[in-house]
């Protein structure tokens, strides 16, 4: 309003008689784009310009001669401004203020105003003047923007909670009982989230997109609004005939630049004549939610990348089992737990028999398939507390928490039998498989390297004894007394 502040200064020093002053002011302000209101010293309206008639939705005759109190929505505002600005003792003020005004049809708006007395050549107040601009939409937009920011910046809200809060805010602002976030793919319309005063629309419901007003958004890739009061033809639309939607406003949603759906608000009753402001505001809702969806997608990608890195770091790519690093960490954790609770832990090292011959004769793909088969077959034989992982090459390591020698031996026997009885085929032939294993137990009070060394020594003894068997080595006693044939 800087230009209008200058205008208020420029009209000081008008002729002493009110009639001449009014004529000058009427000529000066008639074509200004914003409402100008001139009042007498007794605070009656004596002149308004064309913009004022548009703002207050009436003719000049409807306003002139009326007490200025008639244009205020609140008597308190009328009294307050009279004390501050519109009295003969007030000085010309250039500060803006906001007041609520009432139009001729009874509707209320918020006006940003600058005003005060107009003085004659002797410095005496002869008239009052106010320049008013309707800022209802701007203030509403600012308020919505502040609330959207508050929602998105609330770290305690999950993405789903933020999305729902944005829907609730839109329903409140547009005065609609139903708000929906949808995913639209071709003709498929799926409800992702809904705020429904009647609880009829819920997440997961699927419709033909052509039966919804959102289909207009698909073709427009922009905001769309329609109300029965101004577009009675919507009564022929499937959305009205099937769902009874008489008022609708919505905007597109984008994730990483790709159209994914819409945010929309609707009612079974006519609500308002939608303006460009409404379209801009619903676009703001769409852009804000799109930003939230973008951020959620980025976070999910980040989590997936982190999980992938975790898998790469701890999981064997070929078999899907834990790798050497994960197995080592697991053994350490079990040893700590075993020491606390006085329990033993079994560790078994498995190695395929004649694995090089499988690779040489049938190819490395067949060798890989044999390893994958063992991983699947063996995993089905284990307790949920046990852990089998790939130690390296064709070797696998098994960790058995809280296992006695008898229990551990029984588990190892089952795994060797699973390998032996597996229906493995390569090159069109059934190929017999077998494995050897070295098993040891620990009271959890020894070093991990010593335990693994003993398991490896037991495996060596099993291989030396003829393969297709396991050897249990509980301590450093002679291994031949601990050998057990798995057959």
UniProtKB/TrEMBL annotation:
Its cofactor is Mg(2+). InterPro entries: Diguanylate_Cyclase (IPR050469), GAF (IPR003018), GAF-like_dom_sf (IPR029016), GGDEF_dom (IPR000160), Nucleotide_cyclase (IPR029787), PAC (IPR001610), PAS (IPR000014), PAS-assoc_C (IPR000700). GO terms for molecular function: diguanylate cyclase activity. Residues 343-475 form the GGDEF domain. It catalyses: 2 GTP = 3',3'-c-di-GMP + 2 diphosphate. PROSITE patterns: GGDEF, PAC. SUPFAM superfamilies: GAF domain-like, Nucleotide cyclase, PYP-like sensor domain (PAS domain). Residues 95-147 form the PAC domain. Its EC number is 2.7.7.65. Pfam families: GAF (PF01590), GGDEF (PF00990), PAS_9 (PF13426). NCBIfam families: GGDEF, sensory_box. PANTHER family: DIGUANYLATE CYCLASE DGCM-RELATED, REGULATORY COMPONENTS OF SENSORY TRANSDUCTION SYSTEM. This is diguanylate cyclase. It comes from Salinisphaera hydrothermalis (strain C41B8).
């Amino acid at each position: 309003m800087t230009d209008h502040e200058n205008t208020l200064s420029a009209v000081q020093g008008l002729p002493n008689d009110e009639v001449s002053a009014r004529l000058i002011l009427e000529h000066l302000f008639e074509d200004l784009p914003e409402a100008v209101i001139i009042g007498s010293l007794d605070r009656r309206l004596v002149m308004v310009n064309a913009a004022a008639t548009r703002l207050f939705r009436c003719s000049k005759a409807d306003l002139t001669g009326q007490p200025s109190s008639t244009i205020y929505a609140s008597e308190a505002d009328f009294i307050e401004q009279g004390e501050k600005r519109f009295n003969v003792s007030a000085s010309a003020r250039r500060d803006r203020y906001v007041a609520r005004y009432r139009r001729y049809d009874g509707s209320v708006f918020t006006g940003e105003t600058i005003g005060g007395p107009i003085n004659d050549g002797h410095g005496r107040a002869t008239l009052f003047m106010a320049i008013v601009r309707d800022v209802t939409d701007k203030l509403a937009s600012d308020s919505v923007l502040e609330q959207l920011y508050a929602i998105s910046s609330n770290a305690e809200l999950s993405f789903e909670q933020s999305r729902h809060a944005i829907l609730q805010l839109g329903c409140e602002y547009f005065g609609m009982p139903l708000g929906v976030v949808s995913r639209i793919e071709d003709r498929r319309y799926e409800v992702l989230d809904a705020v429904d005063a009647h609880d009829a629309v819920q997440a997961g419901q699927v419709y033909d997109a052509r039966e919804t007003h959102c289909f207009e958004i698909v073709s427009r890739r922009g905001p769309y609004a329609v109300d029965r009061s101004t577009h009675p033809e919507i009564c022929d639309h499937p959305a009205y005939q099937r769902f009874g939607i008489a008022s609708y406003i919505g905007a597109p949603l984008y994730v990483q630049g790709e159209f994914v759906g819409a945010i929309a608000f609707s009612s079974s009753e006519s609500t308002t004549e939608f303006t460009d402001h409404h379209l801009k505001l619903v676009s703001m809702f769409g852009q804000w939610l799109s930003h939230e969806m973008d951020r959620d997608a980025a976070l999910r990608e980040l989590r997936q990348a982190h999980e992938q890195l975790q898998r790469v770091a701890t999981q064997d790519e070929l078999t899907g089992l834990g790798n050497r690093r994960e197995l080592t960490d697991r053994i350490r954790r079990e040893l700590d737990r075993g020491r606390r609770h006085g329990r033993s832990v079994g560790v078994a090292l498995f190695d395929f028999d004649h694995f090089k011959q499988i690779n040489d004769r049938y190819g490395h793909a067949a060798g890989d398939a044999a390893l994958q088969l063992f991983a699947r077959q063996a995993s089905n034989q284990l307790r949920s507390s046990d852990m089998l992982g790939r130690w390296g090459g064709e070797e696998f390591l098994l960790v058995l928490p809280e296992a006695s020698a008898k229990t551990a031996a029984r588990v190892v026997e089952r795994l060797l039998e699973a390998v032996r009885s597996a229906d493995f085929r390569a090159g069109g032939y059934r190929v017999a498989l077998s494995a050897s294993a070295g098993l040891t137990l620990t009271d959890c009070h020894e070093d991990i390297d010593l335990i693994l060394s003993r398991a490896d020594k037991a495996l060596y003894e099993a291989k030396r004894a003829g393969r297709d068997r396991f050897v249990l080595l509980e301590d450093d006693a002679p291994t031949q007394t601990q050998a057990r044939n798995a057959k």
